Amino acid sequence: MTKRQLSVGVLLLVIAIFVSGCTGVPVVMVPQPVASLEEGIDLSAYIVTEPEVEPNLVPIEPELSYVDTEYLMKLMKLNGPGSASRSSYEEYSPEWSFVLVDARPEAKYQEGHINGAINIPDAQFDAYAHLLPADKDKMLIFYCGGLECHLSANSAKKAIALGYTNVHVYQEGTPFWKAAGNYFVVTPEYVSSLITSDSVGDTYRKPLMIVDSRPYDVYFNGHLPGAVSMPDAVFVAKFLSSMPEDKSTEIITYCGGFHCLLSHNSAKVLVDNGYTNVKVMAGGVPAWKQAGLPVFGLEAGGGEFDITGGKPKRDITPEQFKTMINGANVVVIDVRNDAERSSGYIPGSIHIPDVKIHENPAGVAGLLPADKNTTLLIHCASGARAGGVVHKIADLGYPNTFYLNSRIVIDSSGNFSF
Predict the structure, then answer these.
(1) How far is CA 128 from the centre of its chain?
(2) Would you state the pLDDT for residue 285?
(3) Are 145 and 109 in contact (CB under 8 A)?
(4) In CATH, what number is assigned to the domain containing residue 202?
(5) What's the structural domain count of the chain?
(6) Do 161 and 214 sit in the same domain of this protein?
(7) How many helices (H) and strands (E) does the chain have?
(8) DSSP 250
(9) CA 83, CA 95: separation in Å to the nearest integer?
(10) What pLDDT does residue 34 have?
(11) What is the mean pLDDT of each run of 10 residues along the chain (418 residues)?
(12) 410 bridge partner residues
């Protein structure tokens, strides 16, 4: 019996019961040819359909300038995902050629925003307008929740009223950004809400994965509760194949702060491999601590453990770095990526990205000084990547190898600060 035949039968049975109940006369069902029943009864009135809702699109306003997803993606690529100077979510990236502003309410911003954006909710624009740059000619791009969201256009007009001259609206907003294969950025407040006992014990909530993209020894010293160590340098080779089969699983990566690119690198790999719910906590461990949230690991537990397995201590402070760099027979090894180095590097330094060292330590031996007694000073942007390769370089026969365990900023002239 087909579903249609069954539906007709049920309908006739209901009619029969109703008639019998009213007259007191029993009704005997007489089988009818299926064809005649289907032809004689119209069941269309019993089919419930959802009404079509016309989208309430925000009208294009001639006085405003608009950018689309393709333009914003190109702009983001030119500026890069990180910022050497940004230290909080309330600050825009001063190195970027533009300021991206999320006009949605704070809760929406915390649970997922476009990388680099600051949050100025349209409803509270006046209270947060001080977050905008002092330079009124700086390019501003406002966005919100898509083609039906009025917030970004409203805020853009308010910025123009304040005297800003280079204001644009990304009306396609967050839905188009995600549809184009991009990940979102989250805040420590959002991540902390996911590790409460209620959230973890909620059987209706899918499992969450928090990934620490820093080198393992840095993770061991202090990491977010519940995070797993998956260093970006070996993420593809070692961990990608073991990621969840369900590609809608929420995966949050983090590393050493806004200047750190490791978490962005891993997130990009995940998105490129079909994962649809990838997020980055761009502020990393510094923002987590700044929010007063706890870390797990040696620095919290108070215990002792030799993560090096008995190898000599090779980390140095900024003061030691400044002293040693001026010594005789010293070479600086820069293990940042190409994009980071292009913005400035220490004159005379050798550039060997940490990824190449992890992939094949022996293969980079030819790039190092012939004199094995040379003092090698390794640095990255924060110390994490340098610490991850220092022993690999030392094991090539360079006993005087050290790494800067600190954040370092290098300008286009080669001047550096900590």
Answers:
(1) 24
(2) 96
(3) no
(4) 3.40.250.10
(5) 4
(6) no
(7) 17, 16
(8) E
(9) 7
(10) 47
(11) 46 44 49 51 65 79 96 93 91 95 97 98 97 97 96 98 98 96 97 91 90 91 95 92 95 95 95 97 96 90 66 86 90 89 90 88 90 92 85 91 89 88
(12) 416
DSSP state of 406: S
Together in a domain, 177 and 80 = yes
Write the CB contacts of 391 (distance below 8 Å, at least 6 apart in sequence).
308, 311, 314
For residue 393, the enclosing domain spans 315-417
Domain shared by 75 and 176, yes or no: yes
| Residue pointed to by tokens 């190109």 | 74
Residue finishing a domain among 182, 207, 237? 182
Residue partners of 304: CB distance under 8 A and separation at least 6? 298
42: tokens are 């119209």
Q: Three-class SS string for 367-380? A: HCCCCCCCEEEEEC
DSSP-H helix ranges across 223-337:
262-272, 284-290, 298-301, 318-324
Same domain, 18 and 95: no
64 located within any domain: no
Residue positions counted in the chain: 418
- Check: CB of residue 280 under 8 Å from CB of residue 209: no
Within-domain flag for 58: no
The CA-atom distances, in angstroms, between 305 and each of 221, 228, 297, 309, 314 are 10, 18, 10, 9, 16
Confirm if 354 and 389 have CB atoms less than 8 A apart: yes
Strands 409-410 and 228-229, bridge-based pairing: unpaired
CA distance linking residue 242 with residue 238, whole number of Å: 8
